[in-house]
Amino acid sequence: MSTTAGVQPIHELAPYKSLSNNELSSRINAVRRQLGSKLLILGHHYQQDEVIAHSDLRGDSYQLSQMAADSSDCRTIVFCGVHFMAETADILANRPEKVESRNGERVTVILPDMAAGCSMADMAAIEQVEAAWEEMGEVLDTERIIPVTYINSAASLKAFCGRHGGIVCTSSNAKAVLEWAFAKGDRVLFFPDQHLGRNTSLGMGITNDQMPVWDPFALELGGNTEEQLLSSKVILWKGHCSVHQMFRPEHVTQFREKYPGIQILVHPECPQEVFELADVSGSTGKIIQTVRNAASGTKWAIGTELHLVNRLKQEHPEQEIHFLSPIVCMCATMYRIDLAHLCWSLENLRDGHVVNHIDVDPDVAQWSLVTLQRMLDVK
Ligand code: 13P
Ligand code: SF4
Questions:
Q1: What's the mean pLDDT when you consider all of the chain?
Q2: What CATH number belongs to 246-323?
């Protein structure tokens, strides 16, 4: 696998796996020093501590999209997160006016481990959404349905929304995005996360009987009657996050009994029964901000990914922080990004090899950008 004279041969991944974290860290730091501001490492809050320690910027999905959109000096973004986030970074960092301002140079986006996907995003495939849209059209006027995709989705679904007058949302702006959508149409098709769609819509006065769930594996009409679809306001896709699905209402009850005065803080991907029992809910960014702003001695049980909750515990010894489940709920795909993959991708980059390049198809990127820009414009 060696390349032309003067260029180092490509580094294989295997040897990196036997290196210690100290060794990997010092090699990562060496590449970071060499590449300087041409390299931007972005890290999502669910990343492991040792990976987060190497990120230049960290954030929730919305903040990371903004960071990619605003990136200026950098020519490579190494994305420590999951696949849909890296796709979004590629689309936003390479929008036409940005490429023009760099005299035609594109930003290369790298995902250190291509297996870092999102099981929720995988629950809505573009073929399924297109088939559902067509079938819905037999009962409803699809011109009046606004498709809204959670950012946790493949770029092809964002492009679908772009082509059909729809929009993207994140966990931090879902309500504002749904308001935008209702100003444009009569009803919304929300995918892939039924819980974020339901929790947000309930907060806007939409009732459960106005929110049928579309099961892409059902034989007809997503498992609904024509009447259910005709009286719908929001059609929820049958998808969920396997991590947040693990939090149960009985966990909330147990914590309240055992720790009087405890506050329950959850991500809106949790099921309705948990979400409704919580004191505060919001994106990972909001969860962090809420704990930061709380008084010393505040007790929390937090329902989101384990690595973030553990980091909050370490960063806030003045508060009492618990994980809202007796079961370990960690995001196995976020966890795939480790120092070995990060070091391997960075040393290859330094030596002239782009590994794990995220390069969204131009047509998909163009239509995805339409929806992402609509989202960024919603205040
Ligand atoms: P945030 O946008 O809140 O960071 O959520 C991302 C995610 O994948 C939550 O499961
Ligand atoms: Fe996807 Fe859930 Fe992991 Fe977030 S926590 S990346 S929604 S699987």
A1: 96
A2: 3.40.50.10800
